[in-house]
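User: Fold this one for me? It's SDR family oxidoreductase.
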Amino acid sequence: MKEKNTLSRRQVISGLGASLAVAAVAPVLDAEAASSPVAAEPLQDPTTKYPKPPFKSQQQPWPGLAGKMEPQPDHGEKTYKGSGRLKGRKALITGGDSGMGRAAAIAYAREGADVAINYLPAEEADAKEVIALIKQAGQKAVAIPGDLRDEAFCKRLVEEAVKQLGGLDIVVNNAARQQQRQSILDLSTEDFDATMKTNIYAPFWIIKAALPHLKPGSAIIGTTSEQAMDPSANLYDYAQTKAATSNYIRSLAKQLGPKGIRVNGVAPGPIWTPLQVSGGSTQENLVKFGGDKPLGRPGQPAELASIYVQLADPGASYATGQVYGAMGGGGLP
Ligand code: NAD
Ligand code: MG
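Assistant: Here's what I get for SDR family oxidoreductase.
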């Protein structure tokens, strides 16, 4: 379509046969080529775009599988369209099997990046689908299962990603543990420790291992949460890890800014992912999940994919230490 348009203009110009006319019209042609013509999409109402509560009560053992959720989450499998924004980049995404990590993995691959994903061995079924989707996008896909609560594994994960991708320039620390507890008295030391290890220690270990490989222009992205600013009563441990995540994003952006490495965060509101159906929410909250937001529904991972792309895009070169939110109308980043 683009070629056809350009060609017909060229034909018109050559018909004029004047070099002056070519010089005058050439910038117009360039501008046209840059704004690649795409078919108009109909406007979509965000309140009716995706399922609304009430949802079916459902519980899976942690860490849960997207493939077993009802309704199935949308990670952009059928909808995300790339335009070469991350061509040649090499990305590592933790929790890349499902939820926001999967949406980011699909989008990154369709934008031209090679992608390594980490996940727990129990999530192999979800991970296989993501690996297939990355390959379908024509990109290199690397699967590195393993438990992020282990420092030695976090180091191996980065080394393996660098080796298999042939370098690294985007690191997305997205994996997290969320297990709700009504009372602090029900929260064991093991629980507390597992949440801290997954949500705080793992990004610390991964960033330390990745840093020697990251060149100026690289990007680190963390998934934080609306919980960082507005913690729920039953997420005592999880919410404080998200406050810490937003905080490390800002601190590290200051530290790494002079080295040309950008550090930013994504802050989701309630999003329809396995984390919520495998102990992250009570069944009572799950049934009405997202219903209290101005958009009247939870978000879908696909609705955050473009934010992960934007923060990694070299065009966003002045954005560092920022947290971009997607909360359906409630909350603060
Ligand atoms: P998800 O369950 O799809 O993703 C979380 C992932 O974390 C899992 O897929 C799993 O692979 C990984 N993980 C957990 N423990 C691990 C461990 N020990 N080792 C390796 N991997 C481990 O759910 P999600 O909602 O997409 O979560 C992604 C991020 O979004 C998390 O940081 C979460 O805190 C954040 N978030 C989610 C919501 C929401 O409502 N779903 C809201 C705000 C923030
Ligand atoms: Mg998962």
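One thing worth pointing out: The CA atoms of residues 60 and 68 lie 8 Å apart.
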